[in-house]
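Hi P.,

Sorry for the delay on this. The queue was packed all week, but I finally got your sequence through. Input first:
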Amino acid sequence: MNSFPTRHENSLLADTMLRYHEADLFLFIEDKKMPYIYEELIRRLVNLEIGKIYSLESKKNVLEMFEKWKSSKKELNKCFFIVDKDFDHFRNKIIPNHPNLIELEKYTIENYLITKEGAISLLKTKVFEKDKDELEALLDWENWIKLMYEGFKDLFIAYAIAFKFDLGPNTGIKPGKYFKTKSYRIDENMVEKYILDIKKLCVENYIDYEREAEIVNQYYKKHTYYDYDALIKGKYLAFGLLKYLNFKILRVKLDEDLCYPIMVRNISLEPFEFLKNKLIGSQSFNLIS
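Then the structure:
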């Protein structure tokens, strides 16, 4: 089944042309749930009018639309195409270097939302009597995020190997599979089972798992830190955060789709310097002071 949205790509470009002189910016993104998130983020970053944000539902569709735009509509310089980082680089799929094509530096846009500031903004919607310091203590962010990073590191290294050699399902697996029932804690047995299954497939396909795991590990090991947010898919961290808030702190269920808009309005903009530079690089936009 074709995952492309209901409109044909030519009609999307035609739609952009119709709106072109009414706005400063048009975005083509992957996730159908994220237009509002990108809209809020861009409005915080730069002073420009957003015409429309088109969700194309996959990285492949965004890249195909980019190529279509580049070959036939290059005069539409207000169009920008944003794709996730994910694992394509392990298959030597390199994103073209172009001012209007933006690859996230973290795995997905959700990785930018799952921050201490974002989590505290969610707490504030349910906990009214505590000040910021008390909320930070209640959240205990550093210990929770360490639990997530360390708990999912080896799983995502195995995912990367499975993706690279097409060994079966990987990052598309729903995160709930790896959490204990009615708990915010990771189910280590389920993680280990997946890793063992991939190791077995590697043996059957004459792949050196340990060597490949070290290649992946070294890719994310930076000079002064380990880049967990480029390795681990943000949806897993988002799922884990809601489980943590629901079962450990608030004891009430938070809706994921409603949480994202709250977080995007409260997170730091510093990690988005690369995005801002891309957006203002080809046009003379005025930044919000």
